[in-house]
Q: What sequence folds into this?
């Protein structure tokens, strides 16, 4: 059962949509991560897991903060040197990844492995967010979206009893 949608959760989902990220696209990343491990995982289950991750207050806070910083950078309203760093999506900055890890952290070590993998492969919506099109900045959002998917996949992995509770022979 998914919890009722609070105003902050709805605002978070609206912001993701406004920045070109549909929850279905995040669910596709969850399927990408888990398809070889959870037999018969459906789009509906993946989407429900994304919804559950987005119900967490700390996840909502990270997303609205990251998106706000991306938008501020697009409007050239950040202080220097932060404006240039975020605009260039500088590899050594690292705060975008740190913010993403605060989401991944919620569901334990499987989440970290998933996040590292998806951040390297950048499938689906992550490739689009990483395109660095002129005037469009997703320095924070790409990591946050990867983290939501990694956390949602980790939730499913923990719930999957296929590999757990197998009695010892
Ligand atoms: Mg980034």
A:
């Amino acid at each position: 059962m998914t919890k009722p949608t609070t105003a902050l959760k709805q605002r978070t989902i609206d912001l993701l949509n406004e920045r070109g990220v549909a929850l279905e696209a995040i669910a596709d990343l969850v399927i990408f991560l888990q398809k070889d491990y959870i037999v018969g995982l459906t789009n509906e289950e993946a989407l429900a897991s994304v919804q559950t991750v987005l119900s967490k207050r700390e996840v909502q806070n990270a997303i609205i903060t990251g998106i706000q910083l991306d938008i501020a950078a697009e409007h050239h309203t950040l202080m220097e040197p932060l404006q240039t760093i975020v605009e260039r999506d500088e590899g050594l900055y690292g705060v975008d990844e740190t913010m993403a890890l605060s989401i991944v952290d919620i569901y334990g070590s499987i989440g970290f492995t998933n996040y590292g993998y998806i951040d390297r492969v950048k499938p689906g919506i992550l490739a689009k967010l990483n395109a660095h099109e002129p005037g469009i900045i997703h320095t924070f959002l790409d990591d946050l979206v990867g983290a939501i998917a990694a956390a949602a996949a980790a939730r499913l992995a923990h719930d999957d009893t296929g590999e757990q509770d197998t009695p010892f022979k």
About this structure: Residues 18 and 89 are 20 Å apart (CA to CA).
